[in-house]
Amino acid sequence: MKLLSLSSPPPFSQALLHVPLFLFSSILLSSLLLVFLILLWRRHPKDKRLPPGSMGWPYIGETLKLYTENPNYFFSNRQKRYGEIFKTNILGCPCVMISSPEAAKTVLVSQAHLFKPTYPPSKENLIGPEAIFFHQGAYHSKLKKLVQTSFLPLAIKGSVSEIEQIVLKMLPTWKNNTINTLQEMKRYAFDVAMISAFGDKMDIEMDGIKKLYLCLEKGYNSMPLNFPLTPYRKAIKARKLLNETLRRIIERRRDSKNYGGGLLGVLLGGKELSDSQIADNIIGVIFAAHDTTASVLTWTLKYLSDNVNLLEAVTKEQEGIKMKMVGAGLTWDDTRRMPLTSRVIQETLRRASILSFTFREAVEDVEFEGYIIPKGWKVLPLFRTIHHCADFFPQPDKFDPSRFEVPPRPNTYMPFGNGTHSCPGSELAKLEILILLHHLTLSYRWQVTGENDGIQYGPFPVPKRGLPVKVTKRSKTVPT
Ligand code: HEM
Ligand SMILES: *[C@@H]1O[C@H](CO)[C@@H](O)[C@H](O)[C@H]1NC(C)=O
Ligand SMILES: *[C@@H]1O[C@H](CO)[C@@H](O)[C@H](O)[C@H]1NC(C)=O
Ligand SMILES: *[C@@H]1O[C@H](CO)[C@@H](O)[C@H](O)[C@H]1NC(C)=O
Q1: Rounded Cα gap, residues 318 and 146, in angstroms
Q2: Which of 26, 191, 373, 401 could bond 347 through an S-S bridge, CB–CB 3.0 to 4.6 Å?
Q3: Which residues does ligand 1 sit against, CB inside 6 Å?
Q4: Rounded Cα distance, 64 and 49, in Å
Q5: How far is CA 370 from CA 97, 103, 380, 418, in A?
Q6: Which residues bind heme (predicted)?
Q7: Which residues, listed in sequence order, are joined to residue 362 by a DSSP beta bridge?
Q8: Is 93 annotated to bind ligand?
Q9: pTM above 0.70?
């Protein structure tokens, strides 16, 4: 009522009397207006359409969990509350997490140009800023073509016997020993990565490269503290030395007019690449191939030892291959006739989902399923969450390779990503697992020593303590 009376001005004296009231009313009015404006501003369409979720900082423990513990807890809590797209805040970075196949497809495939890959600078500098992962557009597609050429089935067919030789040399050293599965698999995956990077003719520099590379990797997986004696500082030094070693190898290959084998040969043949572009990508590919494959191999052994019937079925399939073999060793075609073993690998990749998610960054304000993702925000497609969604994979915690007898629906199964940045090494990774499983299941058995459960991060999730196992010769009498 008081507010309304202001609109019809009262006589002067009365007005004077009302000065305090007038003042009071106008203060009230302007505060109400301000509150209204604030509300209006907060309901600005752009703001209103941010995805749901809390931007409060997840408490430190929770953020650490995302990186170090089972990230499932972090995601499933929020997914239950907010749905398949929600915003959150990781160590001060606003980000949007997505866990529907359609949204993953938009970010990774159909609108990939709006979402660039993003890595912390400390990591980018260790790998080398010109490595394929960090780029978009013309430079990325030129590199991708070269890398893909080098890892297409046609190109890796020729490596079957070299990979087999590595396996045949490694397995006997396990016999009657307790091995740390992860450590052994890292050795194996590294040797295969070196062959794919440099070809089968090994350079005298290889031992040096291995030492430096392992130092680099250790620094990559540690805190980026650039002080004397920290793993990170040592890694920076190792990276400089690797630069020089690679430059020597590149120079030698250029001089001899023979570019040689492996990815290096392909990159040298690609002409327009500079030495440091080549070096960054060689290191990048070894990096992408090493711990990933080793972690998946470790899980494969764990799941097989937990599922004895499956182990016997895989062994039977491998015996079938061996019986039909004509030559002395495995061929590419043999590896194409291992459907059950291949499904075990597929299910391992799903169940373990060692790459829980990947990072992108919106390059502009992006309209996305009715929401706005502001420029600069991170976008995380949650592979693991999708792989563990009961709608697509019933009883998701069960290890059941037979679910892959029917191909999964598009964008529900992306262990190697999808779209522009999808993994060019997927066929090689599967090939090296198949070859190892062939010989391991035919000739050996392994028993987990100590407790059999728990997860550690090194840096990908792997069974506790790297899965120590006692390896013995397989007795041909099948246990019942
Ligand atoms: C089982 C083992 C492996 C897994 C699970 C895996 C997974 C992935 C995933 C999910 C991506 C996409 C990342 C993203 O979109 O942000 C990727 C990219 C990549 N992977 Fe793999 N990978 C494996 C083995 C390998 C191997 C053996 C190589 C080497 C030949 C390799 C080389 C690469 C490269 C170069 C990229 C970057 C591609 C690009 O940015 O265009 N990976 N990998
Ligand atoms: C391994 O152990 C088995 C049984 O324990 C034994 O018969 C065999 O001689 C051992 N082999 C080696 C190479 O030590
Ligand atoms: C490697 O050498 C190139 C020069 O060719 C240089 O630009 C680059 O910064 C070097 N990288 C490292 C990590 O030292
Ligand atoms: C990648 O995306 C395309 C387009 O949506 C789809 O056809 C394909 O099946 C997807 N790949 C995977 C592995 O889901």
Answers
A1: 34
A2: 401
A3: 117, 132-133, 144, 147, 151, 196, 285, 288-289, 292-293, 296, 354-355, 358, 415-417, 421-425, 428-429
A4: 29
A5: 15, 12, 18, 23
A6: 423
A7: 115
A8: no
A9: yes
Tokens 């912390």: give the residue. Answer: 120
- Say how far apart CA 32 and CA 29 lie, in whole Å: 5
Report how far residue 229's alpha carbon sits from residue 310's, in angstroms, rounded to the nearest whole number: 47
User: How is 161-217 classified by DSSP, letter by letter?
Assistant: HHHHHHHHHHGGGGTTSEEEHHHHHHHHHHHHHHHHHH-SS--TTHHHHHHHHHHHH
Beta bridge partners of 373: 366
| Closest ligand 3 atom, residue 128 Cα | 13
Separation of CA 271 and ligand 2 centre (Å): 54
Is the shortest distance between the CB of 256 and ligand 2 below 6 Å?
no
State both tokens at 16.
């004077």
* Residuewise pLDDT in 10s, the chain (480 residues): 333 333 333 333 343 344 444 445 565 566 655 655 555 555 444 555 899 887 766 666 566 656 555 666 677 777 778 888 888 887 778 899 999 999 999 999 999 999 999 998 999 999 999 999 999 999 999 999 999 999 999 999 999 999 999 999 999 999 999 999 999 999 999 999 999 999 987 778 899 999 999 999 999 999 999 999 999 999 999 999 999 999 999 999 999 988 999 999 999 998 789 999 999 999 999 999 999 999 999 999 999 999 999 999 999 999 999 999 988 899 999 999 999 999 999 999 999 999 999 999 999 999 988 899 999 999 999 999 999 999 999 999 999 999 999 999 999 999 999 999 999 999 999 999 999 999 999 999 999 998 878 888 878 999 999 999 999 999 876 544
Query: How many Cβ atoms from other residues are within 10 Å of residue 454's Cβ?
Result: 8
Nearest CA to ligand 3 atom 4: 276
Distance 148 CA to ligand 3 centre (A): 25
User: What stretch(es) of the chain map to CATH 1.10.630.10?
Assistant: 60-201+260-473
Structure tokens that stand for 97 in this block? 């997490």
Fold exhibited by the domain 60-201+260-473: Cytochrome p450 (1.10.630)
